[in-house]
Structure formats: structure tokens, C-alpha cells
Design a protein that fits this description.
With 318 residues, this protein is α/β, with parallel strands linked by helices. It has eight helices and twelve strands. The structure holds S-adenosylmethionine (SAM) and iron/sulfur cluster.
Length: 318
């Protein structure tokens, strides 16, 4: 029995008075990279059992769920994964989601490896914004941080393609790990400063005890910001909206904006306005709400009960 859509103007808030405005949708649990901070090769070997095709939510199910969330106040959708561009016919899903009347922002987070050939089709389908993950410009370190699967030149080509397709300015996510890429952040900024793209540095988070997380590998945003400020003075910007995950700064010399997502040292759960449909189809609600609900329609719930792992919650937001 489909869930009836609400049309009344009094949109619900959670027990802490937070309206749910953002929904992240994981369209596939697979990824072609093995970033050590997310899907380390030893936990996700070549024979790892990802969801089979029939176990994934179908496009019509995702569309229906998104419409239900939109009727409850969600206005922004973000497609993510795994690697969302591994999902066949993603532009078709984008086309379906773009026609939901209440949705005014539709975004994608991608590792960029498959983007160059799809950027135009995604734009034509109604995708509004793209965030790309680029942890370093150094080819060797990029190899390490993608588990030996990624190539930075391909991702830079994808950035050009996204720009040509009309997606500029892009957001560029960079997870910083001490002793791995933290000495390369200034090179990354040198490259993107003045381009209009917004680099956001993300503290390395624990994602459910499966990524060998260690506090001494986290570079606190405050430390990173001081390092950057010493080279290019920064000025703080006011948040665009209350639940924004990134603290925004601008280069004092006018070379554009950067952001810091301090999920470890300054958690922002209190202002969270985000729900997620996870890699295994389940709905994750903000902290202290009702936890996790299956996103599979009841008839499909029995098909498979897998282990849930936590997803990096706010990192791909905004
Ligand atoms: C899970 S990925 C999914 C989308 C796509 N595969 C990508 O990498 O952009 C979404 C974002 O989460 C970030 N992320 C993954 N694991 C993380 C971790 N342990 N700590 C902080 N950010 C993480 C990635 O860098 C990426 O920007
Ligand atoms: S961060 Fe993205 S690209 Fe890297 S392993 Fe996770 S899902 Fe794949």
C-alpha cells in the first residue's frame, strides 16, 4: 500500500524542533575505488558481496520515497553511493526526481571517474549541482587514497567536462589524513584558488569501525585553517543557512571561498536537517530521532537483511 502524500502546509519537525529539509540517497552500494578511509580493500575485497541488482531500490521506489520526503518538507536531494555513476541510467533517475514539484535542489557527489561521459546527460536531465571528491593532486598519493584504483588526471578531465556542461562552480571535497595527504593541501588550493570552485576540507571520520579510524590521523580543521591562513589570509563568512555543514571562509585576496567540515572536532549533529537512504536500503534519521527504518517496501523487506554500517553523514551535504 503506497504511503499517502501530505499536502498540508504545516510541515513536521522532529523531537528537537528540526525540520527535515535534506535527503541523501545512496543509489548503489558499489564503488570502483577503495579509499582507505571509506572502503578499505581488506574490508571490501574483489569478491565482496554488494547488493545484487534486484536488491537495490528501483528508480520508481526511489522516486516514490523522495516524493514522500518532499511532502514532509524535504527540498534538497543529493545522490550518492558507493559511486553513484556506477548505477546504470542515472540520468533517468535524475529526470524522475527533478520533476517532483517541491524539490528545488538536486545534487550529486561523485569520485569523478565516470563523470566526463555523463555530465551533459545529467545536466539535460535536471541535475543542478555536482560535488567531486579530490583528495590530492599528487598522482602517487591519489593512487594510495583511492586504493590503487583512481587516476587524478581522469578526475581533472571530469572537472573540465562538468564545467563545460554548465555545473560550475563545483564543490571539491578533500578528506584530510595526517601523514597521507595533509602536506599537499596547499598545492590543491593553489590549483583551485581563483577558479570559482569551492574546496572543502573534511576531517577523517570513523565510519562504523571498518576503516581502521585513528584519532591521530585526524587533522583538526582549526590546525589546517591556521596553516592555510599563514599562506593565504582567510576571512570567515556567515553560514548560508542554519544546518550548513561546512564552515565557510573566503581568501582575503578575493581568490574565492573554501570550507571546513569538522565532523570530529566540532560535530554539527545538533543542527542536522538531513535524512539518508543508505547503501543498504534503510532510512537514517538525524541523531536522537527514531534511528533507522527499512526503506524497502514491506513486500521486499524479507528479501535480505544485511548489516548496516554508518555512512559519513554530513560530509557530502550542501
Ligand atoms: C561516501 S562518498 C560517496 C560519493 C562518491 N563515491 C565520492 O567519493 O564522492 C561521499 C563523500 O564522503 C567522503 N567520505 C567517505 N568516507 C569518509 C570518512 N571516513 N571521513 C570523511 N569523509 C569521508 C568522501 O570523500 C566523499 O566526499
Ligand atoms: S569515498 Fe567514494 S570513491 Fe571513495 S571508496 Fe567511498 S564511495 Fe568510493
Amino acid at each position: 500500500m503506497p504511503i499517502p502524500l501530505r499536502s498540508d502546509a504545516s510541515l513536521p519537525c522532529d523531537l528537537r524542533g528540526r525540520a527535515l529539509t535534506d535527503l541523501r540517497i545512496s543509489v548503489i552500494d558499489r564503488c570502483n575505488f577503495r579509499c582507505p578511509y571509506c572502503m578499505p580493500e581488506d574490508q571490501y575485497p574483489r569478491d565482496h558481496e554488494f547488493l545484487s541488482k534486484p536488491e537495490r531500490l528501483r528508480f520508481e521506489e526511489i522516486e516514490r520515497l523522495a516524493a514522500v520526503f518532499a511532502s514532509l518538507g524535504v527540498r534538497k536531494l543529493r545522490l550518492t553511493g558507493g559511486e553513484p555513476l556506477l548505477r546504470r541510467d542515472l540520468p533517468e533517475l535524475v529526470r524522475r526526481l527533478a520533476r517532483i514539484p517541491q524539490i528545488d535542489d538536486l545534487a550529486l557527489t561523485t569520485n569523478g571517474s565516470q563523470l566526463a561521459g555523463q555530465a551533459d546527460a545529467l545536466r539535460a536531465a535536471g541535475l543542478k549541482r555536482i560535488t567531486l571528491s579530490v583528495d590530492t593532486l599528487d598522482a602517487g598519493t591519489f593512487g594510495t587514497m583511492s586504493g590503487g584504483r583512481g587516476d587524478v588526471a581522469t578526475v581533472l578531465c571530469a572537472i573540465d567536462a562538468a564545467q563545460r556542461a554548465g555545473f560550475a562552480p563545483l564543490k571539491i571535497n578533500c578528506v584530510v589524513m595526517r601523514g597521507v595527504n595533509d602536506t599537499q593541501v596547499l598545492d590543491l588550493l593553489e590549483h583551485f584558488r581563483g577558479s570559482g570552485h569551492i574546496v572543502r576540507f573534511i576531517e577523517y571520520m570513523d565510519v562504523g569501525t571498518c576503516n581502521d579510524w585513528r584519532l591521530d590521523r585526524v587533522v583538526p580543521s582549526a590546525e589546517l585553517r591556521a596553516r592555510i591562513h599563514a599562506r593565504w589570509p582567510l576571512l570567515a563568512l556567515t553560514p548560508n543557512y542554519g544546518s550548513e555543514v561546512a564552515q565557510r571562509f573566503t581568501f582575503a585576496d578575493g581568490a574565492g571561498e573554501i570550507g571546513f567540515i569538522s565532523s570530529v572536532t566540532e560535530p554539527f549533529c545538533g543542527a542536522c536537517a538531513r535524512a539518508a537512504i543508505g547503501r543498504r536500503p534503510a532510512v537514517y534519521l538525524p541523531v536522537r530521532e527514531r534511528g533507522t527504518q527499512s526503506a524497502w517496501p514491506p513486500a521486499r523487506r524479507r528479501q535480505r537483511r544485511g548489516t548496516l554500517r554508518s555512512d559519513p553523514c554530513g560530509v557530502a551535504g550542501a
